[in-house]
Design a protein that fits this description.
The chain is an alpha/beta fold and 316 residues long. Helix content is 29%, strand content 24%. Helix 4 links the parallel strand 6 and strand 7.
Length: 316
Amino acid sequence: MSELKLRVATRKSALAMAQTTLVAEAIKAANPGLTYELVSMTTEGDRQLDKSLASFGGKGVFIKELEVALLEDRADIAVHSLKDMPAEVLPEFKLAAVLKREDPRDAFIARGGVNGLKFMQLPAGAHVGTGSIRRVIQLKALRPDLEYVPIRGNIQTRLSKLEELDAVVLAAAGLKRMGLADQVTEYFSTEQMLPASGQGILAIETLNVIASHGVAKQSIDAILARVNDAESYAIAVAEMAFLKALNAGCQFPVASFAEFVDGSDNLKLRGIYWDESSQRLLRAEISQSVIATAADATGQARAAGFALAQKIREQL
C-alpha cells in the first residue's frame, strides 16, 4: 500500500475540485504512505449550462465521463456529490464509501448577503433564482407570490445573478466547502424545505470488478473503508432507495431526507413527491430501526427507503 498512488477522477469546477481534494486528503490521512493525483475533466452537465438538466439526460450527465475514466483505467476512484448521482449506479460500478454529511440544508442568499431581506420579508413579485424544480415547488408552497427564475452554473455564476435577481437559493454544503457561508442570509430548515436526496454527501464510486494498475479491488475497498462514515452511508442508501422505488430523477420534484435521531439507531426518513395529475405535493414520513454498523445495514436502509416510497404510492 505504501507504493500506491490513487488516481481520483473529478469534475473541473472549482467546487468539485475543492470537494474532491477534501475526499482525497481524508483518504491519504487515513492511509499512511498513500499518495494521490487528481484526474480532472469536464462533463456534459458542465458544458451545457444553457439548458435544464431534464432536457438532456438528467443527473447522470455529471458523472458519465468520470465513470468512463474508471472503465478505461484512467482513474481508480471517482468523487461525486451524491445528489448528482442517479438513484442506482450501473452494475459495473458501486458506491464504495461516503464522507460524513455536511450541512444538508438549502441556503437563501438575498441581494445584500447577510444584511439582505429574509425570504419571508421579500416584497411580492420579487425574483428568486434556483436551478431546482424541487426547490421551486416547496418555495411556492411558502411564498406563491414570488417569481422563481431558473438559473444554472457554478456557485460564483449563480451568486453573480444577484446583480439582476433579488435572491438565489443554493445548497449550504457547497457554500461552506467554498468558504462562502458568510454570504448566506438565512438557512431553510428541513421542515420548510426538504433537501435533495443525497445533498451534502460526498460519494466515492469505484469499479465493481478488479481495480486498475494491478491493485486488487480488495485493497481499494480496505483503503476506502477507513474513511467511510457508516451513518452517512446508511442515510445515502435510504434516500437513494426512495428515488429508485419511485423511478424518479431530477426532472421530478421529489426528495427524501434521512437522519438518525438523538444518536440512536432510529432512522427518521421524510419524503416529498409532486403528483402532476392532482397538482398536489405529497408528503410521507417513517421511522425505522437501522443499525449503521451492522453487516446488513445497507439492506436495512434500503428497506426504509422503499417503505417510505410505498407510503407515497398509497396517496397517488
